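Re: that chain you flagged

S.,

Sorry for the slow reply, it's been a week of failed gels. I finally had a moment to sit down with the sequence you sent. For the record, here it is as I used it:
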Amino acid sequence: MAKVARFHSFGGPEVMQIDDLEVGDPGPGEVRIRVGAMGLNRVETMVRSGHYGEVALPSKLGYEAAGVIEALGPGVAGWAVGDRVAVLFGLPMDVYGTYGELILYPADMLVRVAPGVSLTEAAASWMQYGTAYALIDVGQIKPGDHVVINAASSSVGLAAIQIANHHKAVPIAVTRGRGKAGALLAHGAAHVIVSDEEDVPARIREITGGAGAQIAFDAVAGPALAGLLSAMAPRGVVIVYGMLGGYSFEMSLPLLMGGNLALHGFAANRLIEVPADRAKVVSYIEKGLASGALSPVIDRTFDLSEIAEAHRYLESNVQFGKIVLTTASAGE
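Prediction finished late last night. Pasting the structure tokens below so you have them in one place:
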């Protein structure tokens, strides 16, 4: 039996509970992993609260995990019992949710954890950098581009700042409160806009000398998205990967058309569905982690048994970087 975090009804963090489940043996093409750490992502709270489509209850959650392989299913090659691995993101969470001491996972969706890298660090890397890879895959980022990054203190926001700097672009971080401005500058933001105090589109135009930003990486959307579009340079690209500010907005079509702007929805699963695309993303992130250009910022860890408290903390928006769940196997 293994401890697995699930929810049996939709609602707030309090619906998360620990169940004792028989995980079983891996099927064809799968491995069983003894999990040491699991990264948390905001989309998981949206699924739990019932705002992200239908799922069968009770349901598992989780897109990220790192641990040690303890069993191989039929047909698995290239992996061995005892290998330290992290899982790639984007698989259905109700089937392959990662919040648990033991999980089953497809072998072709694993990456090796490098020597000297902790399971906690590994669990904090792949979803955030995979999502921020949209700056390359969609935004085609290039040196000198002004890149607006809202929800900048989130794990994905900080990953986007690192990627922008790695490509010699100019990251403009947007955060709600003044309290995180100094930390964002210390972590690589070239400019910080405090949305509770400042006119965000006006500040973007000021920072860019009136030219507008080439790329916006938007986790907030909602009504503020219209203002963001107004601050884009001609042929600019707005990448929407979250909906923290709401699920809809009103848009001026003349603004969109006259500026030849691109409004692009993005979900990171598109990067892992095709093996060739997956290999590109994995190679990019592995090289970035090895060089130090990419380095996950971990805000806080919780024990798996504290899952409700961890979700509550995630939704408080006070964190700076990644929140990670750990188990007794975290030190392996």
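What I noticed first: The domain at 129-269 is CATH 3.90.180.10 (Quinone Oxidoreductase; Chain A, domain 1).

Talk soon,
D.
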